Amino acid sequence: MKQISLAATGFEIVTKRTRKREFLDEMNQVVPWVELIALIEPHAPAGKTGRPPFAVATMLRIHFLQQWFGLSDPAMEEALHDVPLYREFAGLDAGVTRMPDETTILRFRHLLEANNLSLQLLAAINATLATKGLLLKSGTVVDATLIAAPPSTKNRTGERDPEMHQTKKGNQWHFGMKAHIGVDADSGLVHTVIGTAANVNDVTQGHGLLHGEETDVFADAGYQGAMKRPEATGVAWHVAMRPGKRRVLDKSRGSHQLVEQVEKIKAGIRAKVEHPFRVIKCLSCCRFRGHAFKLLKLPRTVPD
Predict the structure, then answer these.
(1) What's the number of CA atoms in the CB half-sphere (13 Å) around residue 18?
(2) Cβ atoms 293, 195 nearer than 8 A
(3) Whole-model pTM above 0.70?
(4) Helix and strand element counts for the chain (H, E)
């Protein structure tokens, strides 16, 4: 049998700076770990009996790894055993410490949910970004997306998830929830998130997605009339023209050409909101009955 070299023990002659390592190194520097840990520690278990609990810093980093790379609890447990880079980021040493199992990872997420810490973490991160000049707050892009939930009634109660609802988009019916987000128009960073049932109209949540310091708001055609609502503030709303009206524009007329150019400019700004939706739908969302709001770290704002 071929003798094992020292290539996997930290004595590598050539090491490639992969994109994943570059990303984690950057997150290690920009995330305000000290502030986030201080928010969680008062709620962490004391561990007076039994095995000592894992450090809050370790579990927080594992939680972030899950969100960034779209890993379920079992997959995260296996990744900690298989991927040295993840162990390094979490501060774990496979040779001298035990690895958190999927139940430990699940309980930490439930700890954040039970104490509503996710919103506090988001606020702390946004405050740090604003201090560093990465969150300008002069403009906000608002939008909403549907998140599917299991429609089956083959369960113990024999009914659908009561927190979800069905709605029709185009000619297709959807069952689940709706994620409403407010995004910084310059950087694309998310500053506000609201979760509702799928049948809640986008425009009713529009003003709740504003942080109050912006001067301009950009939205798609689903927010028509937002500036006329009772809760409207002094910001300027730039709402997209309805697709039917845009299709009948006469491109040979100069005034209609200007309208089309304005719509393209607004669409380019609104595009910033699509990346967070990709993360939610393709990387972070799991379909668990009764837990869609929790897994997305959204406040429960389902109307009666």
Answers:
(1) 5
(2) yes
(3) no
(4) 12, 6
